[in-house]
């Protein structure tokens, strides 16, 4: 079977997949009706793919996508007419900036998570793989490893606590100039 997706569309889709949670959260913050939110988000996705040729790959993608979302939200509000809770353009711009900054923080924490996961070996690495890669529950992991379900659950909790502490430590180290 032929592949009908060109490389540009593939790249746009990859970038959109990473940006979509931040864009969706931004839209949700300024559009109250959930059906309208879905419509606006869909319009943003289409606009991102259609205008991806204009995207400068040397620039961060999320702010670019949020810019398109700002324009789509503006179009939505103009089509909808007057609403007593409509944000002005400056408020929408501030929200877009805040969502971009939050997305950057989450992206950095994901990078820290990858680093922290690399520090585990042996039993901890096996337990993490069984739980999160293979999506096994503690009882199934217990059968696989010869541990009790309770000891698996406790070990996973300790590992998650260690991961959280590692991510927080790396975040603090990164924020110190």
From TrEMBL:
Residues 20-82 form the RNA polymerase sigma-70 region domain. Coiled coil: none annotated. One of its GO terms (biological process) is DNA-templated transcription initiation. One of its GO terms (molecular function) is sigma factor activity. Keywords: Sigma factor, Transcription, Transcription regulation. The keyword Protease does not apply. It holds the Pfam family Sigma70_r2. Belongs to the sigma-70 factor family. ECF subfamily. This is RNA polymerase sigma factor. It comes from Allorhodopirellula solitaria.
């Amino acid at each position: 079977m032929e592949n009908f997706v060109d490389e540009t569309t593939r790249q746009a889709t990859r970038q959109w997949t990473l940006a979509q949670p931040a864009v969706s959260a931004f839209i949700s913050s300024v559009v109250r009706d959930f059906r309208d939110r879905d419509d606006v988000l869909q319009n943003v996705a289409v606009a991102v793919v259609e205008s991806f040729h204009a995207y400068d790959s040397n620039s961060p993608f999320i702010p670019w996508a949020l810019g398109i979302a700002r324009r789509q939200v503006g179009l939505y509000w103009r089509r909808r007419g007057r609403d007593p809770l409509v944000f002005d353009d400056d408020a929408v711009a501030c929200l877009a900036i805040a969502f971009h900054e939050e997305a950057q923080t989450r992206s950095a924490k994901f990078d820290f998570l990858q680093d922290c996961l690399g520090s585990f070996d042996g039993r901890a690495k096996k337990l993490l793989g069984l739980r999160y890669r293979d999506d096994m529950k503690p009882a199934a992991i217990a059968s696989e490893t010869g541990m009790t379900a309770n000891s698996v659950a406790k070990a996973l909790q300790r590992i998650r606590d260690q991961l959280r502490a590692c991510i927080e430590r790396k975040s603090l180290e990164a924020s110190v100039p």
